[in-house]
Design a protein that fits this description.
By secondary structure, the chain is α+β, with helices and mostly antiparallel strands. The protein folds into three domains: about 60 residues, no CATH class; about 90 residues, no CATH class; about 90 residues, Lambda Exonuclease, Chain A. Helices cover about 35% and strands about 10% of the residues. It is built from nine helices and five strands. The chain has a five-stranded mixed beta sheet with strand order 1-2-3-4-5. β4 and β5 form a beta hairpin. α1 crosses α2, α3 crosses α5 and α3 crosses α6. The longest helix has 24 residues. The protein is globular.
Length: about 325
């Protein structure tokens, strides 16, 4: 999913405290997307999580959100009605809930033959764009028969606190539980399946979910399934307990590096081919930019430990 995290900084939302009690302090946490951000570029992690700088929406990303919404709503229908025709009818109400969000209206301009199929930010008519989303929804039915599936959860929050205190949290597109208790974690992608060399990167998010479910339920997921609607393919993987133990150590190492960076305010940029999709090149030293001063006060108020001076309240 594109799926981006609803809580952009990865922090856990605080529950409402009982009357007369002070609210609990905010607590930083790690999500799959934020962990991937730090692995890709520590400075990108800082801009998104600490500075919380705004980023432009793209037609491709918004289309992914729309398709996810349709597939989530599809499972609200009785099994017999989960057909391609009924799924396409869900596009308009899902779009009605999405189109008024800030930054979406300006993505659309005059009609173009290919639009976002060739450029994620190319102006495109709403009609052509919705049609492209509809094609992705239709392609889903070639990969699964939703009439035979009854998910336990959709867009489900999964979280766990590890023994060292690290809070892991994320949202699973779909969680299936078989009669024998076997778990299947499903994630929808609106792009194409990556080449074999990049499969491990694609599975990072799914192993994250598998680790949280194992720690909370004591069951290793029988299958992790990535559904790629762009080319109508799927990637499946069966993790093992020893693998999840190693993956947990990897996440702890990433978290330790994040904590050190926050404490010192030192987030180094990592120049790669992915920089072409980054909204923050103007602030990046790798592109001749200068980052804003590290927001130590904002980091402290979000629950981070920092050795940098914080102005008194």
């Amino acid at each position: 999913m594109v799926q981006t995290d609803p809580q952009a900084d990865g922090s856990a939302p605080a529950a409402a405290p009982p009357a007369g009690e002070a609210p609990a302090p905010r607590r930083p946490s790690l999500s799959p997307s934020r962990a991937a951000d730090f692995k890709t570029c520590p400075l990108l992690y800082r801009f998104r999580t600490i500075d919380r700088l705004p980023e432009r929406k793209s037609l491709a990303a918004v289309r992914g959100t729309l398709v996810h919404s349709v597939l989530e709503r599809l499972y609200d229908l009785p099994p017999a009605r989960r057909t391609p025709e009924n799924a396409l009818e869900l596009l308009e109400p899902a779009w009605a809930d999405l189109r008024d969000e800030p930054g979406i209206a300006e993505l659309f301009g005059t009609a173009q033959p290919d639009g976002a199929e060739t450029d994620a930010n190319a102006p495109e008519s709403v009609e052509a764009w919705l049609a492209s989303a509809g094609k992705l929804v239709e392609k889903y039915f070639a990969l699964e028969d939703p009439r035979r599936i009854q998910p336990e959860g959709r867009e489900q929050l999964v979280e766990v606190t590890l023994p060292d205190g690290l809070l892991l949290r994320g949202y699973v597109d779909r969680l299936d539980v078989a009669a024998n208790g076997a778990l299947r974690v499903v994630d929808y992608k609106t792009g194409s399946m990556p080449r074999e060399a990049f499969e491990s990167k694609a599975l990072f998010q799914m192993k994250f979910y598998a680790l949280v479910l194992w720690r909370t339920r004591g069951v290793v997921a029988a299958q992790l399934k990535l559904i790629y609607l762009g080319d109508g393919d799927a990637l499946t993987y069966a993790p093992e307990e020893t693998e999840l133990v190693r993956f947990e150590r990897t996440l702890l190492a990433i978290w330790s590096a994040i904590e050190r960076a926050v404490a010192t305010g030192e987030f180094r940029p990592n120049k790669t081919r992915l920089c072409g999709w980054c909204d923050h090149q103007a602030l990046c030293p790798s592109w001749g930019g200068t980052p804003p001063p590290f927001p130590a006060e904002a980091a402290a108020s979000a629950g981070w430990r920092t050795t940098l001076p914080v102005s008194p309240a």
